[in-house]
Amino acid sequence: MSDLRRAHCLTCGKSRYEVGEISWQGNCRDCGQLRLAENIIGIATQTGPGYRRWKSGMLKWAATLEPDRLEATG
Q1: Is there a contact between 1 and 23 (Cβ–Cβ < 8 Å)?
Q2: Do 52 and 45 contact (CB within 8 A), yes or no?
Q3: Under 8 Å between Cβ of 18 and 7
Q4: Structural domain boundaries of the chain?
Q5: Would you say 32 and 23 are in contact if contact means Cβ atoms under 8 Å apart?
Q6: Can you tell me the distance from the alpha carbon of 54 to that of 22, in angstroms, rounded to the nearest whole number?
Q7: Torsions phi, psi of 53, nearest 5?
Q8: Residue 70 pLDDT
Q9: Residue 31 near residue 11, CB atoms below 8 Å
């Protein structure tokens, strides 16, 4: 689904007139597909920016848990 308010891809910077629709995340179709592949491979191999983004998000989520919940789930 496209976001008609976006005029440029946040990744490559090209305009929607060059690359077509821009997603709600701000990526054109090509950049979105590259980001998806990067995330799948990075998380599976625990390397690269996709894995670092996932790890950072998990750490931020864990910081919001109460200490007694951490002990119960660990």
Answers
A1: yes
A2: no
A3: no
A4: 1-66
A5: yes
A6: 23
A7: -65, -45
A8: 58
A9: yes
Alpha helices in 46-66 (DSSP H): 48-63
**12-65 tens-digit pLDDT:** 999 999 999 999 889 999 999 999 999 999 999 999 988 999 999 999 999 988
What SS3 state is found at 23?
strand
Smallest Cα–Cα separation from 4: which of 28, 29, 24? 24
Q: How far is CA 20 from CA 14, 28, 32, 33, 55, in A?
A: 9, 7, 12, 14, 32
> What is the distance between the alpha carbons of residues 21 and 9, in angstroms, rounded to a whole number?
9
Over range 2-6, report the average pLDDT: 76
Q: Which residues contact 23 (CB under 8 A, 6 or more apart)?
A: 1, 2, 3, 29, 32
